[in-house]
Amino acid sequence: MENINDVEILIVEDNPNDAEMALRALKKNNLANNVLVVEDGEEALDFIFTKGKYSGKEKDSRPKIILLDLKLPKVDGLEVLREVKADEETKIIPVVILTSSKEESDLVESYKLGVNSYIVKPVDFDKFVSAVRDLGLYWLLLNQRPY
Fold first, then answer.
1. Which domain of life does this protein belong to (predicted)?
2. Which CATH number, 1.10.1660.10, 3.20.20.70, 3.40.50.2300, 3.20.20.105, labels domain 4-141?
3. How would you label 58-96 residue by residue, b for 16+ Cβ within 10 Å and e otherwise?
C-alpha cells in the first residue's frame, strides 16, 4: 500500500489465513490495488477515525467498503460496527460482516447496528474466494456511493 489515503477496502481480520485468502480473491479479480488489512478492532477504529498511528491520514479519506470479522482481539467487530454506524461522517461507509459466526444473536445485532450485509465465511476455499470476489465486484463496481 503506497498511500494510506487511497484505501478502498479495509479488511478487519485477525486470522492471517482468512485475510490472505480474501486478498488472493481480490487480486485474482484485479480488485486489490488499495487494500489495507488490520488485525484487530482497535486498529480498525484508529484507521477509520484517524487516531493513533493513522493520525496523519486525511480525515476525509474513507474506504469504499469495510469487510469486518466479528470475533476480534481488543475491540470486537460489533463494537467497531457500532462506532462506525453511530458517527455522522462514517455511517455511510458500507460494512459487510464476513465471519464464521452463525449465531442468530450476532446476525440480529449486526443488522440492528446498521450492517449492510452479513456473510458467513464458507469453509470451502473456492467458495470463500468466490464470495469475496462477488463482494468486491458488487461494492466497488456496481454499488453507487453518495461520496
1. Bacteria
2. 3.40.50.2300
3. eeeebbbbbbbbbebeebbbbbbbbbbbeeeebeebbbb
